[in-house]
Structure formats: structure tokens, C-alpha cells
Design a protein that fits this description.
It is a single chain. With 126 residues, this protein is α+β, with helices and mostly antiparallel strands. The protein contains four helices and five strands. The chain has helices at residues 10-20, 25-28, 30-34, 45-58; strands at residues 2-7, 66-74, 83-94, 99-107, 113-122. The chain has a five-stranded antiparallel β-sheet, with helices on one face. A hairpin with a 5-residue loop joins β4 (99-107) and β5. The longest helix has 14 residues, at 45-58.
């Protein structure tokens, strides 16, 4: 398994909105967000889930890995200035097909599970 932690600020959220085109006001407008069940701005779910890609492409399995698929369940909101620790854990290897399945989880600074899922990777051949 491998982990990576990051704090998400308004800078990351606003940059992700520009890159992705997702300008949902719950992510960008505090006044609007205050009128929602979240009460404050929240991070884009895919922005937070991108931490899994950081781990998979640089550490486990590492450089040259090809991301084949990802199931994701968003369990709790991630608010601005939350620190998220993403973790990937190998749960299955198929050497014949050159595939690896990994459990993906993300927790906030309070230990609350915010995202779960399963990733499928094609690791580089040695």
C-alpha cells in the first residue's frame, strides 16, 4: 500500500473548475454554498479522487502504469482547507493479464472516510 496527503484550498478548487469546466457554485460561491445542506463550499469530488492517480502513477505501481478504471463512492463532503490522506492497497494481481486491482480510500484530518473505491491498473512490465 501507499499513501499521499494534501490540503485542498480555494486555489486548487478554483483551478480545477477552470480545467474541468465544472463551475458548480457549491464549489466556488460561499454565499450559494451556505444555502445548501453543506453550509460551506466543498471540493469537487474528482479533484479529491485525483490523489489516487498521483499515487498510482508515481509510487504504486509507479511510473508507466496505465489507469484502466476506477469505481468511486463519495461518502462525505470535503471542505476547503481539509487535509485528505489517500491510500491505495493492492487487493488482487493477475500476472497473466498484467492487471492489478487496488482498494482506494481517502480520509480527512478527523479520520472520517470520505471516498472509497476500486482501481484497476496495468503496471509497466519489468
Amino acid at each position: 500500500s501507499a499513501e499521499f496527503s494534501k490540503m485542498f484550498t480555494s486555489v486548487e478548487v478554483e483551478s480545477f473548475a477552470q480545467v474541468s469546466g465544472d463551475h458548480n457554485p457549491v464549489h466556488l460561491n460561499e454565499e450559494y454554498a451556505a444555502s445548501t445542506r453543506f453550509k460551506h463550499r466543498i471540493c469537487h469530488g474528482h479533484l479529491v479522487a485525483s490523489l489516487f492517480s498521483a499515487i498510482l502513477g508515481t509510487e504504486l505501481p509507479g511510473e508507466g502504469s496505465i489507469y484502466l478504471g476506477q469505481s468511486i463512492k463519495y461518502l462525505k463532503p470535503v471542505y476547503l482547507n481539509d487535509t485528505i490522506t489517500a491510500k491505495v492497497t493492492v487487493i488482487e494481481k493477475d500476472e497473466e493479464k498484467n492487471r492489478v486491482k487496488l482498494e482506494t480510500t481517502a480520509v480527512n484530518q478527523n479520520g472520517d472516510l470520505v471516498i472509497t473505491g476500486i482501481a484497476e491498473i496495468m503496471p509497466p512490465r519489468n
